[in-house]
Design a protein that fits this description.
This protein is of the alpha/beta class. It contains eleven helices and eleven strands. The chain folds into two domains: 236 residues, Rossmann fold (3-Layer(aba) Sandwich), CATH 3.40.50; 68 residues, no CATH class.
Length: 338
């Protein structure tokens, strides 16, 4: 597969890749809360994703992105974690109310997930072919021979050379980029309607990152599946996503279409994140950084969780929790960017 050029990181406003859909969202999350024991991890998350749309979920490590993603398909360890409140509607069904057999029928079939590190997600004692065929035999009425042919077809589709040979290899015999492509092949085996990609390019070099992201975007355009892209890389979001939701301290603090959010951020946390993009700064200048760290669950301060790190915090930020505005450009900030 030819090496693609490094992804350009535009800072200018961009138009959404797909127009907003007037139909009901494929995935609708409403007031989702996730607790570990009595400690809130994710709070009051609301998010919609339409068919054919790519939505970026961004924020620093510890913001609650991965927990939100795992909660959609109920892969959080229950107990100690639980969902005490909220709905996760997928095509009209509340996933938070389904039992384990019903969830297993949906996982892989309708909703697939690409995890952060393929080396720990792939089983080291089974061949690549075994792991792709397992998905096909579980969800499709195929013979072993037909499943094997489909597995080779999937590997070819994601750019693995000599797919028939690759089926007989073990994960440790593949490069990092090839393992990530195998994860994508497994996720796409049953042609899911929603793909959740949790940091799909973590630990990959920049040229392989570009190839993986282009592949996901091409497959999204071909099949019309929805994609939830979880990342901390705002450059990737600006290039590929239609809409963006920004998380901090377990809550979504801003949400808008990508062009609007990059051109006119409202929350001070989003503004601070955008200032760290290299292309937004003078070449050769020292990149700005956000002081401090994301507060751990159970140690979040009163009021806005970002206020200890915010240079524009006012008194109300320190005492009262802001809520998302109810408009096309949602933000939860007492002193928004003008």
């Amino acid at each position: 597969m030819p090496v693609l050029p490094l992804p350009h990181v535009p800072f200018e406003p961009i138009a959404p890749l797909t127009p907003p859909s007037p139909t009901s969202p494929l995935l609708s999350i409403r007031d989702l809360h996730v607790h570990a024991g009595a400690t809130p991890i994710v709070e009051a998350v609301c998010l919609d994703i339409h068919a054919g749309e790519m939505v970026g979920l961004v924020g620093e490590s510890g913001s609650g992105k991965s927990v939100t993603a795992l909660s959609i398909v109920r892969l959080i360890p229950e107990p100690p974690m639980r969902i005490p409140q909220g709905r996760i509607d997928f095509d009209g069904r509340d996933l938070s109310a389904l039992d384990e057999p019903a969830l297993r029928a949906i996982r892989g079939e309708d909703i697939a997930m690409i995890f952060q590190e393929p080396m720990t997600s792939l089983n080291p004692v089974f061949t690549i072919g075994d792991q792709i065929r397992e998905m096909l035999l579980l969800h499709r009425d195929l013979s072993v021979k037909a499943a094997n042919a489909r597995a080779a077809e999937l590997l070819a589709r994601v750019g693995i050379p000599s797919p028939e040979t690759a089926l007989m290899r073990y994960p440790h015999q593949l490069s990092g980029g090839q393992r990530q492509r195998v994860m994508i092949a497994i996720a796409l085996a049953c042609e899911p309607r929603l793909l959740i990609a949790d940091e799909p390019t973590t630990a990959l070099d920049v040229t392989v990152q570009a190839q993986i992201l282009e592949l996901i975007d091409d497959l999204r355009r071909e099949s019309g599946m929805a994609v939830l892209l979880i990342t901390h890389d705002l450059g990737v979001v600006s290039q590929y996503c239609d809409r963006v939701a920004v998380m901090y301290g377990g809550r979504i603090v801003e949400q808008a279409d990508a062009g609007t959010l990059f051109a006119h951020p409202r929350h001070r946390y989003t503004e601070a994140l955008l200032k760290t993009i290299p292309s937004a700064n003078t070449p050769g200048a020292r990149l700005p950084a956000i002081g401090g760290t994301v507060p751990a669950p159970g140690r979040r301060p009163p009021g806005c969780a970002f206020h200890p790190r915010c240079e524009a915090a006012i008194d109300v930020c320190r005492s009262t929790l802001p809520v998302l505005t109810d408009d096309d450009h949602q933000h939860a900030c007492w002193n928004p960017v003008p």
